[in-house]
Write a structure and sequence with these properties.
By secondary structure, the chain is mainly beta. It has one domain: Porin, CATH 2.40.160. The termini are far apart. It contains two helices and 13 strands, in the order H-E-E-E-H-E-E-E-E-E-E-E-E-E-E. 34% of the residues are buried. Strands 1-2-3-4-5-6-7-8-9-11-12-13 form a twelve-stranded antiparallel β-barrel.
Length: 237
């Protein structure tokens, strides 16, 4: 139980940064988003080859080639929590885009523990563009919690809408289900607004769910926070 709560706190940090990451940047430096297919975070679309995105709080994202995007959270890496996310867009036409995403994260903060908590999750992403200004995205896949092992399912859905060429609104829900473990987690609902200035993007929003937070050294000091703010500034380099 103590290890699960500890990893839940680690997952809170990762999830918080990941939520901040979902502010949806376009691919080359420009004053607007241009097309909904330029929204790569949280969708099946990827960065163009050579693109590099970095935020104050959020992750670093690299366009390895047009079909492969690599993401990592430097803050977590510095905290001895290696993490990587690789997205492969293998199908894309005017009506639908499909991608395979593989996410890995594991904590080595406490080397005295026999179990080293972490997770590995391959999942599919389907994005449907609507007249170049909106998109529906659906995610579903498998999640393996590491050491001790636990098998489950991960799911999510998101709506993205370009209100204007420089203003993006997105609303999404995500969660996990472990049939032989803790059952269904409390889903997390997020809502973000992003404005574009040339290569700079500012996003603000809110996440509603169940976020475990520690304020002391004891298990009794862990409590649930129902609401979490989202804010970050990004650059496309």
């Amino acid at each position: 139980m103590a290890q699960r709560k500890k990893f839940a706190r680690i997952r809170l940090l990762a999830a918080s940064l990941a939520l901040v990451a979902c502010i949806h940047l376009p691919c080359r430096a420009r004053a607007d988003f241009g097309d909904i297919r330029n929204v790569f975070s949280g969708t099946a679309w990827t960065l163009q080859e050579g693109d590099f995105v970095v935020g104050i709080i959020g992750p670093m994202t690299f366009g390895l080639v047009d079909q492969f995007t690599l993401t990592t959270h430097p803050i977590l890496d510095l905290l001895l929590i290696p993490n990587v996310n690789l997205k492969w867009k293998f199908f894309d036409n005017d009506k639908v885009a499909l991608a395979l995403d593989i996410a890995y994260i594991q904590s080595f903060l406490d080397t005295e523990l026999t179990d080293i908590p972490g997770s590995l999750s391959p999942y599919m992403i389907l994005s449907v563009p609507i007249k170049d200004v909106a998109a529906l995205t659906f995610r579903a896949g498998y999640v393996l919690e590491l050491s001790p092992n636990s098998h489950g399912l991960t799911y999510g859905a998101e709506v993205s809408w370009l209100v204007t060429a420089a203003d993006l609104i997105s609303v999404g829900v995500s969660g996990q289900y472990h049939p032989r473990g803790r059952g269904a987690d409390v889903p997390t609902v997020t809502a973000t607004y992003t404005h574009a200035w040339d290569s700079i993007r500012l996003s603000v929003g809110i996440a509603v769910g169940s976020f475990l937070t520690r304020v002391g050294d004891n298990a009794e000091d862990v409590f649930d926070v129902p609401v979490y703010p989202i804010i970050d500034v990004w650059w496309l380099l």
